[in-house]
Amino acid sequence: MVVFAGQGDARRSMDLLWRAPGPSRTGPGPRPGLSVQVIVDTAIAVADADGMAALSMRAVGERLGRTAMALYTYVPGKAELVDLMYDRALAELPGGYDVAAGWRAALTRWAEDSWEFYLRHPWMLQVSQARPVLGPNEYRVLEALLGVLAATGLTAPQVRRAVSALSSVVRGAAQTLAESRQAVRATGLSEERWWHGRAEALEELAPGFAERFPLVAWLDAEGAPAVAEDVPYLEQAARGAFEGGLALVLDGIDAAVADARGGAGM
Questions:
Q1: Residue 75 in contact with residue 84, Cβ under 8 Å?
Q2: Quick one: what percent of the chain has pLDDT higher than 90?
Q3: At 233, is the pLDDT very low, low, confident or very high (cuts 50, 70, 90)?
Q4: Mean pLDDT value across the chain
Q5: pLDDT tens digits for range 145-156
Q6: CA quadruple 37, 42, 48, 50: dihedral positive or negative?
Q7: pLDDT by residue (tens digit) across 208-227?
Q8: What is d(CA 85, CA 149) in angstroms, rounded to the nearest whole number?
């Protein structure tokens, strides 16, 4: 399921994203007062618990003990709500990183924070990056990353490419792991049972596999990481992809920095 941000009214969405939070509006009885912030926080709780597919104005209203219609006074609709949720969740991430120990250490910390964030809120990975939300926290998080990359001395085009590469590695690996966990819940079939059944069928129905696909067989035999028995394979594979991919990107940035310094000294 892919959700595109920015599907609601542009002016109303941007107004809600950038305005200062207002006071809660209290209602009759013991129910909590409503506000945009309360509605958005509740929507995030719904998505965290049940996924983006379960998100609706009705589901949020029920969790708050209100009707869906009561929410429309504060948020125009689900499209605007998704924008607000996305930007609100990003407020959890740091607004800056110390580069005193070097840009590589700071980027590693940024990547670890982002990885953990996506696994706390896997629904964030379903919000497409094709159209940014353009909210204050989205810019704040980007500014934090740019603050580290600016310390490398790379040019603006190089920094732009580094941002893209770093984001792709972190999001891609986190998405693989998030979807693996979702598959177990959705199908009721563990990774081990799924792979065991497919592997047996492949061995039986695809004789001569190694001869037909020698490089795949080589990669499987030589490139497979050590597996801890108490951790699901895909959990380890996703983490390995995250760490290995990050190291390769950081090595590439390191090489670009060295080239830039070498050229400057000529």
A1: yes
A2: 71
A3: confident
A4: 90
A5: 999 999 999 999
A6: negative
A7: 999 999 999 998 888 666 66
A8: 27
Residue that the structure tokens 């607000």 belong to = 84
On whether both 61 and 152 belong to a single domain, the answer is no
Q: Where are the alpha helices (DSSP H) in the chain?
A: 10-18, 36-50, 57-64, 68-71, 78-90, 103-120, 136-150, 156-187, 191-205, 209-212, 214-222, 233-264
85 and 49: one domain? yes
Last residue of a domain, one of 38, 60, 90: 90
Amino acid identity, position 92: E
Which positions ≥6 away from 225 have C-beta within 8 Å?
A: 236, 237, 240
Residue 33 pLDDT level (bands cut at 50, 70, 90): confident
Q: Find out whether 119 and 179 touch, Cβ atoms under 8 Å.
A: no
C-beta of residue 115 within 8 angstroms of C-beta of residue 125? no
Quote the CA–CA distance of 112 and 248 in Å, as a whole number: 15
Residues 167, 249, single domain; the answer is yes
Expressed as residue numbers, the domain containing 126 is 103-190+232-264
